[in-house]
Fold this protein.
Amino acid sequence: MNTAKIKVRFYETDMAGIVHHSNHIRWFEMGRVEYLRQAGVCVNALTKAGIMTPIISVECVYKTAARFDDDLILETKLDKISRVRVSFSFRIIRECDSAIIAEGRTENAFADTKTYRVKRLPVDYYERLKEIKEKEGE
Amino acid sequence: MNTAKIKVRFYETDMAGIVHHSNHIRWFEMGRVEYLRQAGVCVNALTKAGIMTPIISVECVYKTAARFDDDLILETKLDKISRVRVSFSFRIIRECDSAIIAEGRTENAFADTKTYRVKRLPVDYYERLKEIKEKEGE
Amino acid sequence: MNTAKIKVRFYETDMAGIVHHSNHIRWFEMGRVEYLRQAGVCVNALTKAGIMTPIISVECVYKTAARFDDDLILETKLDKISRVRVSFSFRIIRECDSAIIAEGRTENAFADTKTYRVKRLPVDYYERLKEIKEKEGE
Amino acid sequence: MNTAKIKVRFYETDMAGIVHHSNHIRWFEMGRVEYLRQAGVCVNALTKAGIMTPIISVECVYKTAARFDDDLILETKLDKISRVRVSFSFRIIRECDSAIIAEGRTENAFADTKTYRVKRLPVDYYERLKEIKEKEGE
């Protein structure tokens, strides 16, 4: 599991006085980037290898509103990995009171940066991610 | 059903050359606003009545990438309405080739703009939305 | 001069209850895109010709706060055009009361989409834009 | 001077492969928030005291494109402070090669969160900021 810190920025709020719900989806992306980095898979290296990771689906359940200047913890877990798809699940928690802000899931494909067609993840990356997932138990 | 037009803006794209997936979630919000307006329920009037509509859940399945300058059609349908919650479903279609860009669903609560606690939707708004939903069959 | 309409979106507001000031900069970009389109210079065609238009400078003076659901008019004027740079000026007006929301200026360069180095605007595009500017008088 | 670190997020890029220029304006805001915090003036405390800080003007000169995953340093300096207005200047530098990404300036007013009219900054906050500015020499 990767754990990242997020400090809510002013521009992430809306006129209801809380964080706009599209930001949680953006934070999930940050969680994926950090999870992959920690696993030795840099998104920039993937891009150089001609691989992009188009989103296939997003789900988010919002539990508590986040607010400007909140310190949040973003937990990212690899759920499923194949050579053509990867799923992550996420939990966002407010640091000060441990309130659960949101929980979600995303699925991404591996595709060619030029043709946008499916492109299989190189074996070494795949093995590395699979191994990490297995070590984490479930 | 409400149908709205969206022209993809340059800043909505990302370095993969396609629309960033957080924008679809923002477009869904625009669909809700327009659906409610067409039903005679202006979001600004709701706000003046002390009612906000915090998001409870979002789901989106991405079918085809949208690109800068694409003309999109956003279809918004009311799925369920009670005095404390409302669900909408959405479909985004590209105008030129009828490609389905994405499909999704959202659930919102009705809450007090000051206390952020549940606040029942006034009966007249509720009746109006219920009636529209029933007329649409489905 | 190009005149475009903008309806303020909910997600463009912030917790101060007004439109976040970064959106005006994004709207200026929309004005540039529409001005160029009206002049027969599509941004997508520029991109296909290997030309991008990196921003060099932005200035914006904010006069009145814009709010959710406001109908705005965005006026875009070509100030200066050479084969390596283009300047636009902008005015944003609220439709209902003619309040001036903001005024600004931007400068963009023409650059190669791959090398990011200066790339001269093709003569036909340049002539077209220069002619339009001259017809507008000043 | 306040120095903050920024890691460029994927969603901050656009289809030109670089950071969209509206993000620099958002980063400037983060710089203001951090400068004020370091000076003992929390934006949330200001808000509770009924004070908001509407933007009056923004200027930004873009020197080098920032890219996804770049580590940036944001320098924020208080330029001028009165009881009704505050000006800051900013510099964004890429950590790895010290390239200057952008330089800018902003001016904000102090206003009442409810009436949006000018509201003088409380004397204690004003004195604190003035003192810090004076200590910094220029």
The beta strands of chain A are 2-7, 51-52, 55-62, 71-81, 85-94, 100-109, 111-112. The mean pLDDT of chain A is 96. DSSP finds three helices and seven strands in chain A. Chain A touches chain D at residues 9-11, 26, 29-30, 33, 42-44, 68-69 (CB under 8 Å).
